[in-house]
Input
Amino acid sequence: MPYKDPQKRNAMKRSWRKNNPEKQKAAAKEWRDSNKEKVSTQNRKQCLKREGWTPEEYEQARIEQNDLCAICGFPSDSSLHADHNHKTGKKRKLLCGLCNSGIGFLRENVDILNSAIEYLKEYDE
Output
């Protein structure tokens, strides 16, 4: 690097990325492809942070739930989702992708969920 000063070096890197978007995109893809585990770990940490969970809290909940979904009780095909109340931000438990999506599609609304339960019961054979 021609600059020992970190600010100058970072400015030069930003300038290069701005002037070479295709090369930057290809280099970033190459790095992601060769560092899949790091990318996965970074994505998990960012997602947990966004949901208000620390990696330690997630791991503790995963152990307490024996790697099972808190709703259906089945193991997840992939990692469990850190669920939270979207209105209050309060952490709940870990859910499989299907259950997490299900309560999301039902707008986390107990009345809608009860209607869905009654609907299923009505047509249960």
Observations:
- Residues 52-122 form a domain with the His-Me finger endonuclease fold fold (CATH 3.40.1800.10).
- The mean pLDDT is 92.
- Helices lie at 6-19, 21-34, 36-51, 55-64, 97-105, 110-122.
- The CA atoms of residues 13 and 19 lie 10 Å apart.
